[in-house]
Amino acid sequence: MTRMEMEEGGSRGARRRGCTFQKNDFFPEESFKSWGSYGIALRETPWKFKNRVMTRSKDETEVVEMKGRSSNEMKKTLNSWDLIWFGIGAVIGSGIFVITGLEARDAAGPAVVLSYVVSGISALLSVFCYTEFAVEIPVAGGSFAYLRVELGDFVAFIAAGNILLEYVIGGAAISRSWTSYFATLCNHHPDEFRIIIPNVNPDYGHLDPIAVVVLIAIATLAMVSTKASSLFNNIATIVHCLVIVFIIVAGLINANPQNLTPFTPFGVRGVFKASAVLFFAFIGFDAVATMAEETKNPARDIPIGLVGSMTITTLVYCLLSLTLCLVQSYKDIDVDAPFSVAFHAVGWDWAKYIVALGALKGMTTVLLVTIVGESRYLTHISRTHMMPPWFGLVDDKTGTPVNATIAMLTVTSVIAFFTNFRVLSSLLSISTLLIFMLVAVALLVRRYYSSGVTTKANQVKLIVCLVLIFGSSCGVSAYWANSDGIIGYVICVPLWLLGTGGLWLGVPMAKTPKLWGVPLVPWLPALSIFINIFLLGSIDVASYIRFGVWTALLLVYYAFVGLHASYDAAKELKSASSNTTTNQLDQDLNMLEQGVQSQNISTT
User: Fold this and answer.
1) Which pLDDT tens digit goes with each residue over 495-516?
2) What is the pTM of this model?
3) Are the C-beta atoms of 499 and 526 separated by less than 8 Å?
4) Which of 109, 347, 534, 582 places its Cα 20 to 30 Å from the Cα of 600?
5) What span, in angstroms and rounded, lies between the C-alpha atoms of 604 and 600?
6) Multiple choice CATH, 77-449, 1.20.1740.10, 2.60.40.1930, 2.40.50.140, 1.10.3720.10
7) For the segment 202-229, what is each residue's pLDDT rounded down to a tens digit?
């Protein structure tokens, strides 16, 4: 038995509790055994990098072996209704009560409802892709596990870093908005509840202690029990839905159709620019995919939970954004608490308290699901040793990833304490769109490529088609961002159709889903790739600079730590599997020999 296996096996035997430490909890791999070992590992970096780029995980590895590294099993307590309520609770609140006002006033005007339609369609396409993977690979790792299986460790790691960034920034942004609505409920300006540091950039100098307290309280609930979190979420979401019905009805009573004129004051470009940022409103659903490991019947419950909650959410977003623009002119919308201030503007002062209370409940459930989702992502990433395995431990008593929850809570709280919401939202959308695009690519690879099944000729066709789909999508996005003409679309759109049609007609499928599959493959995944890349072209340059800095930091960490740790862990896993196979063969041979000896004795 290998050294890491002995340590992990010992952990399972001891029934580990959260926040306990043992020797080699953080760097048990051979590369970090000594400075000499680390020096050798660094010299082997190019070869290891090639191995990690080319290596693919397997479904059974993610579902069985990776889960075994968490010391304890997560408890299977969730059904389809829990997932629907988690989905609604995760999404409604993060967008409609946070950034709708900002995008309606500064980017799209009343046409923000169309921005939600575009974002909703793209999110629904991504939901289909996530659902097939979550049913086939029901683990806590979500898109990280899916990408490891289809696109390899390196792509999965880059996605993992952006997944964690997505959740950290999302939680920080929503917790700061929680403070804004709480201030409205108390008849105060949000900055009155923050600590203002003079002569410091307001994007980073308005400190928010309330956001930190809210995060700690919700994370505590998430650590106690997943089922308790689900029950709290269900009750809070029902109350939240009643408030939404009230907002729509009361808003229509006070509607002024003149407020919809002009409908597109910033033009079509403004509609898509807002759509890119409003993707922030749909990040919650991928957190529901991370709960597959705790779902009683993934094949039935996940499709109902994911597709059902996203359809309801998109409809609600469109109705609420339209209601906001009917009640108040887009020029007068308040960016901190748009719905509460809108009712105040029409003389319904009492209504703003109901709206603020509903918004707080909505954002509370969003934060709950965000914390649950991000901790499960970190848990599965740590199972591969790309992050220290201590973060992947599951608490014996609660059946929840306590270590990962505390780690993510700490980082989210620090960012929420310092950073302005406007800085956070655009950077978040880049990470979200990138991950959704990669999952769609991974689904096409899953359907059309299988080692030992797909011929070399079909592999070449698949690569050419994917390059055409990806390249033409990038071309449309770049042309949209830099030109008002049509020549770019005349060139790129036919290339996209050629790539997708070529995949459909010219490459035979290598795999078919066993339980639930995305319809209209390759058209729906290819369309998801196109829309996600197109929306990426509408995000500002400053956000891309921040994104580039973050990606550079990820690459540095991967080159010096993550690459060597994950390579050693994969090597040990392969060795353990070989030993298991050898032991099984020895047992079979011994049984055969005993049978032959018994037969010889009886013959004698």
Assistant:
1) 999 999 999 999 999 888 888 8
2) 0.78
3) yes
4) 582
5) 6
6) 1.20.1740.10
7) 777 788 899 899 999 988 888 887 777 7
